[in-house]
Each structure stands twice: as C-alpha cells, then as structure tokens.
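Let's sit down with a protein and look at its sequence and fold side by side. Go ahead whenever you are ready, and we will take it from there.
>
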Amino acid sequence: MIDAWYDSGSMPFAQYGYPLKNADLFEKRYPAQFISEAIDQTRGWFYTLMAVGTLVFDKSSYENVVCLGHILAEDGRKMSKHLGNILEPISLMDQHGADAVRWFMAAGGSPWSARRVGHNTIQEVVRKTLLTYWNTVAFQALYARTAGWAPSAADPLPADRPLLDRWLLSELNILVGAVDEALEGFDTQRAGKLLSAFVDDLSNWYVRRGRRRFWQGEPAALRTLHEALETVTRLMAPLTPFITERGLAGLVVRWTRPPRPRSTWPTSPWSTRPWSTRSCPGTWCWSGGWSSSAGRPGPTPG
C-alpha cells in the first residue's frame, strides 16, 4: 500500500511525464542541486524524495538539503490565525522593503533554527546593514560628483595609495573569498555576517578616518571607496537584489553611459527607508536626501 507521499516522492520525474516522454529534459535536471523546506518535512517530503529516487534510479533526487526552522512571533509563540499573531509578508515588505525581509530570512540567523519575526527585528536589519550601505553609496556618489571624479587610468595604483587604502583593499579581497565559500556551501548566515561586518568597517572606520580626503576630492580615496563599494554590492546582490541594483547603477553605470538630464533623475520622498519597490518597480529610487554616518548630509545623488 502506498499513500499520497508517493506522489510527492515521484515529483522529480512525474512532472516531465518521464519515462513516457521528455527523457532528455529529465536527464538534464535530475538530480536537483538542492531542495528547501521546513524541518517538519524531514519524515515526509525529504524522505520520500530520497526513497523513491533511490529505488527507481539508484540515486537520490537531490544533492543538498536546506532545512528551515519554523517562523515564530516576536514573543516566541508559533504564528497562527487562532492567536491572531500572523504577519503578512507583503505588509512587511511594504513597510521595511523587500530586501530587508530577504536579508533577515537569509542572514538573520541559522536557517534550521526557529526564527522570531517582527517589525522591530526587521527594522534592526535596515538600521545596522542596509541603511549603512546605502549611506556609504550616497556619500561616494556625492563627493565623486562634487570633485568631478570618474574612474580612470590616471588614478593611483593600489601599491601607490596610502596604508589605509591598501588595508581596505586587502580586507576586501579576503571578503570575496570568504563570502564565495559561504554561498557555495549554502551558508547564507555566514555570508551575511561577513558582509555586515565589512560594511560597518567601511563606513565607520575607513570613511570616517578619511573624510577630509573625500572633501578634498582625493583620487586615491575616491577610487578605493569606489572599488570597495562596487565589489561589496556584487557580493550582496544575491541576498538583496533591489538596493544593490540601484547602488550599482549609481556607482558604475553612470560612468559608462552618457549622463541623463537632471529632470529625468529618479526621486522619492525621504522615509525611514531610502528606497521603494512600490513607487519605482524593478529598481530603487534615490531619496530626496539622507543622513549619513559616513559624512555630511547632501543633496540627491544622480
């Protein structure tokens, strides 16, 4: 006798109608690189996928498992309609931004542990990581534009830059290897922890100790911060695609295409989060201003 779980275990080949058809497509996609579900599926979906796949093809239907813990309310109780403590994901994204929710879920703790979710915990993600990153991008955009600077072959080579610049580039290269290793191992928590620490050092250590160099438009400082932000933006992109897309556009794309008239620059009212997926679908809006921990407030970067 077999029950409904047999259907779930047969999904990897049944969805293609194999072996009656689509043999080439099935062979290309079997086994799956990874599957992800909550911990209560260990004896259900995870088991039947492995059991049916091994019995029929002598090979498990997946190579890796990402097993997630349950989502809890801020008071530690399980979310349920009966208790009235459910938080709708869309409302969280509307209030805090989609990237804040993504970062919290991917990097806010061990994926396999139960997670307390609430407005306060997600706001902390915005304050500590995303807003710090955004303010540093805005700082770079402001002073690069003020100095009329753009990346060029005339900028000093890393070996010819001051010690603080060389230290940052060294830390950046270490970060690239460590984050790549973490993501290859599906360890988003470690990747997020490494990126958060680097963003904090970038803003509160490197930029703060070199503010006068940026005010004076020093090419070595501007080029070093530009390289660091471009790289960390690409590293953060798998976890926070929206804010990094807008950051990369402001840092890199603006130097590789003719500038747009000021009237076409995107703007949005300042709020607790300087981005909006609702008012600017598919991208991020520059805010009308910002309060940067990295330097003096300034006008909207273009």
